[in-house]
């Protein structure tokens, strides 16, 4: 595409691409924007080195003029978007990329890869955090997903309210707080559970979490408190009917005087499994598979569509809205502005998407912020800011948004034609 | 775990870990081993650099003796496993890692991440290739999954029979053949479809594939043949009822004399969508989302379990089979040997998993090959070998394995106690 556009003289036309989801995963009430910070890192690093160019030429993927063009490539356009942690709905324009066609089309795959993955994980993670109702949650899904996706998943989970991750690289790269667990293998390695528990206590102190379901839970809890004393930090249960076992363990711990020892549960938990344990004496959850695979929706189904382009080259050429007419895949031409409409009580009631000139009303909260300006990254922020923003965005939604049951999006998306726009 | 094991003196005990799936994804008939080559790359590269060690010390994740131990770390044990491309079933021991507990436990997350991802993609991809019945298939799912997972997915898809990938990095890194497509944005960028088609033909020649569903398919096909002549390579349809549209387009192309022009279809295809087009005049498929997300099973649910360990330190200490007794998560202790039992016609009839000393019968094909010996990689092979092996492994399975309908695994897994083993 790039080579043909460079030859036909259309590569330098100004173009506007928008990222949006035509729909949320079936039954979901809202989506969560995550990965924006990673998009900025990727845009900044998007260059073609000599090895890559040599490969592209050898395989005849591009011709020599295109290779020369790529050698000098750096994105010099503008990007606006929903700030990270924000909620989104069908057709929310969560990212807008403006530049020449050539430079904007090159970013398509990396932008969509990052957002489709991170938004899928965050959209699932947010529901889990809601279900956990403030109880601490460890993200521990690294082993169930691609080794690099695991790092991004831990980051996205933290944005939605997870407390810690077992992924140390996410700690190193993004500053996500980390936590670990002992595995059954550690118990099996030792000459009996007593030997294993003692080894762990000797190293990590009585505040550690002992895994009590390798052999017999009741015996393990007795041994744990005997060795650690009543100040044992926590026990972890990873199998069986977690609610039933947690109740029994709580009673046993209390009888043994370990009233402050917490109970942590793990084992194929998803948002429904977490919600089902709301009334159980559980003090924390470890969540893996269902989080990193988006709990049934492993991709956010975001698309990257050309919505406007210039009639000719140069910054002053008039822009024209464009849209394909493919059956069943409707899209709306023109650059869009988005606002969240709030009612008199500050509760969100609609997602307003305006083509042309926006005229925000008093209760309309603008959703798009500048992320890249003339190729310079301007939207970088600490990850904690995204986490705080998500909590605030969620608090603003109507109560129905927090239902786990399948249903319609919590807000309707309303399209407004604001008249002639850019 | 590592720090505690180093302190308790158990870190140097010999240990055997096995990777297996307790079950296949619901309804699947077989799984496909993929990612083995990537595991070998990861094991070879598994070291701790100064920055990483500084982070681990700063955060107090490990103590100083453990950091010193990690600084010298390189895996010095043995790995055996199913060769890449092989089929697997519940409890097939697809990878066996032997070494000291310390060195083998460290590999758990990266080994599982790679295999859980790549096997999930390959297990879905193989069904799609079966459904396509030999018609060419382009992997084009990069934008629907994490940016690095995309590269691994393209590699796994190639193992299962996909013809090409749109992921250029998979071409560069793993030698997977690459192919591209033009997007609707390319058509929309130009002053009309005619302008766009001409630009593409000028650059890529009449053998290219023109995308014909941006506006009106019938008009686009007419324009395409008018501009390219009857030697036009192919047209692509990305929307609508693909079977119906393909028939109409075939008729139109034939009427226009473009009898050799192929029809390529794309658009949320999975194995069922591909199978439904078996009788349609379709010459190739492009598959994205469903492939890279494992078509409903985005992780292979493989686990990494300690199955045997020594009673004390040193290479000569006697080994002891171990297994946890957690409710609902049964596991079998002891190192296992696996064979595929073939009947008199060379058709597979059972997966034989032997604990203790294996005694293969005449019709038993051994499944495990050496991959790492005393820390040296010995199992590297060209990716084409894995692709050929998958075709052969699939041909050996009973016909029921190739059914797309949900059902039981195509082979039963039979456990044999071969007596005292290693």
TrEMBL record, chains A, B:
Its EC number is 6.3.4.21. It catalyses: 5-phospho-alpha-D-ribose 1-diphosphate + nicotinate + ATP + H2O = nicotinate beta-D-ribonucleotide + ADP + phosphate + diphosphate. Pfam families: NAPRTase_N. Catalyzes the first step in the biosynthesis of NAD from nicotinic acid, the ATP-dependent synthesis of beta-nicotinate D-ribonucleotide from nicotinate and 5-phospho-D-ribose 1-phosphate. One of its GO terms (cellular component) is cytosol. InterPro entries: Aldolase_TIM (IPR013785), NAPRTase_N (IPR040727), Nic_PRibTrfase-Fam (IPR007229), Nic_PRibTrfase_pncB (IPR006405), Nicotinate_pribotase-like_C (IPR036068). Pathway: Cofactor biosynthesis; NAD(+) biosynthesis; nicotinate D-ribonucleotide from nicotinate: step 1/1. PANTHER family: NICOTINATE PHOSPHORIBOSYLTRANSFERASE, NICOTINATE PHOSPHORIBOSYLTRANSFERASE PNCB1. GO terms for molecular function: glycosyltransferase activity; nicotinate phosphoribosyltransferase activity. Belongs to the NAPRTase family. GO terms for biological process: NAD+ biosynthetic process via the salvage pathway. Transiently phosphorylated on a His residue during the reaction cycle. Phosphorylation strongly increases the affinity for substrates and increases the rate of nicotinate D-ribonucleotide production. Dephosphorylation regenerates the low-affinity form of the enzyme, leading to product release. This is Nicotinate phosphoribosyltransferase. The lineage of its organism: Bacteria, Bacillati, Actinomycetota, Actinomycetes, Streptosporangiales. Keywords: Glycosyltransferase, Ligase, Phosphoprotein, Pyridine nucleotide biosynthesis, Transferase. Residues 1-116 form the Nicotinate phosphoribosyltransferase N-terminal domain. It comes from Actinomadura logoneensis. Residues 315-337 are annotated as: Disordered. Residues 322-337 have a biased composition (Basic residues).
């Amino acid at each position: 595409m790039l080579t043909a556009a460079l030859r036909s003289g259309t590569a330098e036309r100004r173009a506007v691409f928008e990222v949006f989801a035509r729909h949320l995963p079936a039954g979901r009430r809202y989506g969560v924007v995550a990965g924006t910070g990673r998009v900025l890192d990727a845009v900044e690093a998007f260059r073609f080195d000599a090895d890559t160019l040599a490969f592209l030429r050898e395989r005849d993927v591009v011709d020599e003029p295109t290779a020369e063009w790529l050698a000098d490539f750096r994105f010099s356009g503008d990007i606006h978007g929903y700030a990270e942690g924000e909620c989104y709905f069908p057709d929310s324009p969560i990212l807008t990329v403006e530049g020449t066609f050539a430079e904007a089309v090159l970013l398509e795959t990396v932008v969509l890869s990052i957002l489709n993955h991170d938004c899928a994980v965050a959209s699932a993670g947010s529901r889990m955090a809601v279900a956990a109702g403030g109880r601490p949650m460890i993200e521990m899904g690294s082993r169930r997903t691609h080794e690099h996706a695991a790092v991004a998943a831990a980051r996205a989970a933290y944005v939605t309210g997870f407390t810690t991750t077992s992924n140390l690289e996410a700690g190193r790269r993004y500053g996500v707080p980390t936590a670990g667990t002992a595995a059954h293998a550690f118990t099996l390695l030792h000459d009996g559970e007593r030997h294993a528990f003692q080894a762990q206590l000797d190293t990590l102190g009585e505040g550690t979490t002992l895994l009590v379901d390798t052999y017999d839970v009741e015996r393990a809890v007795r041994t744990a408190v005997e060795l650690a004393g009543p100040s044992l930090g926590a026990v972890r249960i990873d199998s069986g009917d977690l609610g039933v076992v947690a109740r029994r363990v709580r009673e046993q711990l209390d009888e043994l005087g370990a009233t402050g020892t917490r109970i942590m549960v793990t084992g194929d938990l998803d948002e429904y499994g977490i919600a089902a344990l709301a009334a159980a004496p559980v003090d924390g959850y470890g969540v893996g598979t269902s989080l990193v695979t988006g709990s049934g929706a492993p991709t956010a189904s975001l698309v990257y569509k050309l919505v406007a382009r210039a009639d000719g080259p140069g910054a002053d050429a008039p822009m024209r809205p464009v849209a394909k007419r493919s059956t069943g895949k409707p899209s709306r031409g023109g650059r869009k502005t988005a606002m969240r409409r709030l009612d008199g009580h500050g509760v969100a009631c609609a997602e307003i998407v305006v083509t042309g000139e926006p005229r925000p009303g008093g209760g309309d909260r603008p959703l798009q912020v500048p992320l890249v300006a003339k190729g310079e990254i301007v939207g970088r922020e600490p990850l904690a800011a995204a986490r705080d923003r998500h909590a605030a965005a969620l608090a603003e939604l109507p109560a129905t948004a927090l239902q786990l049951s399948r249903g319609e999006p919590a807000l309707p998306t309303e399209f407004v034609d604001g008249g002639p726009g850019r």
